[in-house]
Amino acid sequence: MRLKEIPIEGVPYDQLRIEKVPAAPAYQPRDPELVPAANRALVVNPDRICMPIGAMWAVLGVHRAIPFVQGAQGCTTYARYTFCRIFKEPATIATASFHEDAAVFGGRRNLVEGLRNLVVRYWPEVIGVVTTCSSEIMGDDIGSFLKEARARLRAEIGPEKAEQIALVQINTPSFAGSHVEGYDRAAKAFLQTLATKRDTPHDRVNIIPGLLYPGDIREIKHILREMGIEATILFDISDTLDAPLEPPQRIPYYPPGGTRLAEIKEMGNACATIALQADAGGSGAVYLGRKFGIPAVAGPTPVGVAATDALLQHLSRFTGRAIPATLRAERGRLVDAMADTFHHTMMKRVAIFGDPDIVAGVTRFVCELGMTPVAVAAGTFSKRFGQEVEAAFAAYRDLFLDTPKVFNGSDLFEFEEYLKTLPRLDLIIGNSKGVDIARELEVPLVRVGFPIYDRFGYQKRPIVGYRGAELLLYEIVNALLDYRYPDDRTQQL
Amino acid sequence: MPLEILPSRRGHAVVKESDPPVLPVCGQPTVPGVISERACAFYGARWVLAPIPDVIHLVHGPVGCAYYGRNVRRKGYRLFSTNLEERDVVFGAGEKLYRAILEACTLVPDARAVLVYATCVVGITGEDLPGICKRAARVVGRPVVPVNAPGFCGASQAAGHDIAARVLLEHFIGKEAGEPVENGVNLLGEFNVQGDLDEIEALLEQLGLKLICAISGRASVATMAQAHRARLNIVHCRRTGHFLAEGMREKFGIPYVKVSFFGIEETATALRVIGQFFGATEVEEVIAQGIRAAKVAAAPFLSKLGGKRVGLFFGASRIGSMAKAFKELGMDVVLAGSQFGCQEDYQEAGNKVASGTVLVDDAHERELLEFVTYRQPHLWVGGTKERFLMQKLGIPFLVFPQENDPFAGFRGFVNLARQAAGLVSAPVWRLT
């Protein structure tokens, strides 16, 4: 950490920046008892959101689907804000509109009436019914409510039309997990409700991408295309949350793309399931495996060379297709870029935080770049996270300058306080919530993961696949260069 | 009206045909199943209280509510939450909250008070929030105040505004002794979005007035404790300000005026009303100077805006004055509506818009969509949630509360003109 000159004369250092790196003598450390999140009843600056938003994310990846949130208006509004800010796209999410009466008498009327109103105004093909804290605590019997709602729809719009609308119940009590688990539960709920097996299995592959951005999903599609593999991507947000601007549009507005209902029903006949993120979507793959005997792999997120290799090998093994020369060339270009930039990335100390799958993937990649991950933090607790990052460390531990510290399910306060005790840090990789930390520690921030809302275009830039890794590599290197060699006069090459 | 309206929504959207206008039905719970533009009461309370810098904001609930609450009003403060989990919901989380308050005060020793926000979870499980706060307050030696605004209470976020105002009135305003300040004023319901407050303060200073406290754009515990020393309260946003102003009139005998600083004429009226109260002699000069400068600076933009249609849908107490400001830009206001207006808001808006304008309360996404396809406005003004949808339909969008420059006062009017003109004539719309 490089300390800059203090810009204002006559102001004591401790008053200028109260929460400063320990290099300053006046730095007052926190009560060490209260720094570890495990010691506190309190969470300070959490790096996870609530379960319903993960489920809403998933539903928005289905063609003509609308999430129906069984809760108060805020549960919908906050999520819509979040999606709008990340994707710069509209997010159509319906609310059950809980008020005092619902809190007292339960949400039956809200669901039955709400689904009816939603259907006659929007005519969706799929409705994902997402529960919230309040609905779960009150003990809404969603199953029987849905039966009643279906009966009402039959009476009002005719049985034929009513049967065509798929209703998927996703139980997401927010106090029981984070957005990562919400997505996971949605994947399982969709497959449980919709996927069926016929006698004729085909050679399509199921891909459950997890909490990846449209750019990532496009990159996965590119890989599949190059290999000549047909696949169903559940949930495909690549077009629904990155739609072209082509006025005039019809109303109600539905974005193009998304996974088709018919495709989801067919997922029981696929030859294999690959969940790109074990924590976000892995349950769906496991369910298909148990129920229909479809071979499944879950994770790792294909960031970097080894993880992308693994994905291609899985695909090749499941379908019998060879890995084409074009993808080998992409790999070669990535490795070439790594050789070109290695003198800038090697021995750099980096801290990584975010969702467990993404952090594990990025951690492996930075190890491949010769960097030392000094601290890796998963905002959501994950059983697999520890093993995954340890596996990444194992191959490169001989190159590390420091022993990495692993945080699992902690908050950003603990992460930040730990970073402040380090003698040196070069880079932080994480989502937009890391801006304060990066500024405080005066190190560059490379934005990766969920959510990124304070910069444009990140949702379209892939980090998965060889090409995604190459782009991420350039961003890492350029962040380091921007910081150390801000213009051409300081460059040696 | 050709709009397709759910039967339960009849009466919530009306066309102005007469004077005085028929007003839309308002203050009702939202119809279930719509894509509502409303937020919850918790959001409203956060919106009002979030800017107070020297207190600990502790959200008693699941971590999600806390996380979202941090995004309200873009402040970089630390966010504290009790992070309720399954076992807390089942067995109660009173002790956890008590411990959390103590820990937060240890981590931020110089905080002057603690605000404990209730969420839906706490509202349903029925925790004894006031009791726990009282017990903790004795230990930490500073006010620990419950903000009991669970998301489902009230019809909209407006309920949260009222609850927050009550909290401020009861626990923070006028807590220290002090003589009345002869030229002192408070601004109530002014949130200092992108420097609005600075514009207003500069105008007040020209009248020789001193701003003691702006709630909650510039409201620390210290300044609020002094707020009762003002001679006049100026209410800007009715939703928060009115309640506070009434309370301060009862408690401290401070009179208040409701004004608006959006648009040239409204600003001039506001200054006249305030100046008259204080007997300020320089008012007319300040106004004349401001108007002259604003008209010169805004002139190049007005030519791009004349005769263009605009739809307004945002926080209720601004729609009236903003409608007037857009008229001053030469634009036709075709719709004025809000998520959470009250009778007075629509009364004011109804009086300020032309005949044929639609007045609507709590319109949801589908109604707004139908409206824009029917009237084809050249500009839409509202919140981020609607923005990207309108753009998909090819309609330029101005985010309000604004994202770049202040819109208040004479100079703010020029900013508004520049933004509006830029948006309606943006090259991107020639390329679609």
TrEMBL record, chain A:
Alphabetical list of PROSITE patterns matching this protein: NITROGENASE_1_2
Signal sequence interval, chain numbering: none
Top-rank taxon, per record: Bacteria
Protein keywords: Nitrogen fixation
Domain Nitrogenase/oxidoreductase component, first and last residues per copy: 50-480
One GO MF term attached to the UniProt entry: nitrogenase activity
CDD domains in alphabetical order: Nitrogenase_MoFe_beta_like
The protein's name: Nitrogenase molybdenum-iron protein beta chain
Record lineage: Bacteria, Bacillati, Bacillota, Clostridia, Thermoanaerobacterales
